[in-house]
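S.,

Sequence below, as promised.
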Amino acid sequence: MFYFLSDWLRAVWGPFRLLSSHVVMMGGGALCAAFLVWMFLPRLARRLPVDRGKQVKTASGAAEAVAGAAASAGKPTGAGFPLALLLLPVLACFFPIYAWESLWDMGVILCVYLCMLSGFLDDCAAVPWGGLKKGLFDAAVSLAAAFCLCHGQMMATWWPFTRAEVLMPAWLYVPVAGALLFGAINTTNCSDGIDGLAGLLTLFSLVALVGLLYVVVGHSTVADYLLIPHSNSAAKWAVFVSIFAGAMGAYLWYNCYPSSLLMGDAGSRMFGMVIGVAALATGNLCVILVVAPMILVNGGLGLVKLAVLRVMRLAGHPVLRPAPGETPTRLQRLFFSVTFPLHDHCRKTLKWSGQQVVIRFLLLQALLLPVLFLLFIKVR
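The prediction came back faster than expected:
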């Protein structure tokens, strides 16, 4: 709204022209979001459902708590719901409005909030949603968001290792981009299991996306130097991501170890969608590998493993865990030597503490980001 009103307000007082600056919108939006979430989230959290703890089945059939679940049980969860509500006035004020184009943007933001709502309903449900129900909902929302991002038209994209700009028709772009959004939602959701882990990795990814959108893709000089197609709308999405980054920073104030508040599926799924949307806004469908490598490794490999196991079972080749005392086959070692999400494997098998997992995963993401940036963006 501020951006839309800046043309009229500057006639009243010259400094109001700053409201048309994307940098001012980024900084102001992030600060306002952080303040609102820091101030009001703990008060709204009193009305949230509490975490019930997660249960898994071991090979022997006995139920045991996932590492860290006992510590999380009883804490308010689903904080993504009030957080998203607190962000509504910030988005209304700071997100740039570009005439009719903003109708498509509103569609994307609606999809982000639908992801949050589905996660919150799952957090509140006495019986958690099944995988099929979640998967179908995620697929529908992801396809709708991808359609809104391309405006139902041909989309110009750029790729690693080539200077060529590729035009993708809507019928091809929507399913490919939808699959990426589906993966971003679920891998971020899978990474939420240790105090501060998903939040810090997500915050790091969001900050990297802000820089990529505003400084690289949205800056004509830098884009020309890197042989990247310049995007006039990239700065707008940088403002959008900055607002969510500010909110995540404030949330981490309460989620750092020992946490007093959990984002639940409502938050992790919403922020996963934000990462996916921002990555697509760069025009490169592979950018998510650059900005969120540890999120994808931590949660994505588990999803791949689950998909492969289900396909093998459907094909009549079930892969079963070795019985106690039985020597595992090579195939069994391949599938069951590592527990997913990967942070569970690090704690159970490698005996890392929760804080060691958080710091080491963050360091790995910080080391991988510049390497992947050079490989995927500079080496073209």
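The CA atoms of residues 207 and 245 lie 7 Å apart.

Coffee later?
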